[in-house]
Amino acid sequence: MARRILAVAALGLVVTLGSAACGTDRSASDARSVACRTSQLDWKMTRLLGKHPDGGAATLSAENNGPKSCAFDGYPDIDVHIGKGPAADGKPKRGAAPVHVELHPGHTVEFPLFYEATAAPGDGCEVSAAYDPSITVVPPHTKDGSSVRMTDAKGRHVRAQVCDFDIEVGTPQLR
């Protein structure tokens, strides 16, 4: 009887150690995910109207439309430009936390964007909506980007306008 109890206890220990060695905990599976690539992400940029509690002028979101999870390690590169002329570039907001997001298929990561969208009286904008600027977004750790159209909350195309040289990218949220 004592041998049977000892054998069952030993088997339980082997199963427990085996599952730990196979990486069944979440942090081990996160480390094995490959970086999110342009081809598996659907990007959207939505202009926000009025004053919002976080002060963001827009949100940038990426949905994983691929069949597997991917790691989103870092901030996306954003470029709003008019041909080869005026441009505004994205950079992480001062004090923003480092980003590591495990993005599962069908899930979305959303970044708040902070910039002046309207000019002060008598001033102009670096990137004017009058010229319908282009927007390019590149995920971290890749070189290939995607063109993105800015929309309003109802999905209608609106022209981007940035009255700064920089677009600050805030800490992301999973949706």
In brief:
This protein has 175 residues and is of the alpha+beta class.
Shape descriptor reads globular
Low-pLDDT residue spans: 1-30
Please compute the radius of gyration using only Cα atoms: 22 Å
Helix content: 10-25%
Taking all residues together, what is the mean pLDDT?
A: 81
Named CATH topology of the largest domain: Immunoglobulin-like
Overview of this structure, please?
- This protein is of the alpha+beta class.
- It is built from two helices and twelve strands; from the N terminus they run H-H-E-E-E-E-E-E-E-E-E-E-E-E.
- Strands 1, 2, 4, 5, 7, 8, 9, 10, 11 and 12 form a ten-stranded mixed beta sheet that branches.
- Mean pLDDT is 81; it is low at 1-30.
Notable characteristics:
175 residues; alpha+beta; Immunoglobulin-like; two-stranded antiparallel sheet; 2 helices; 31% strand; globular
Task: Record the SSE blueprint.
Layout: H1 2-21, H2 26-32, E1 41-47, E2 58-64, E3 70-72, E4 77-81, E5 87-92, E6 101-103, E7 108-114, E8 134-138, E9 146-148, E10 150-151, E11 166-169, E12 173-174
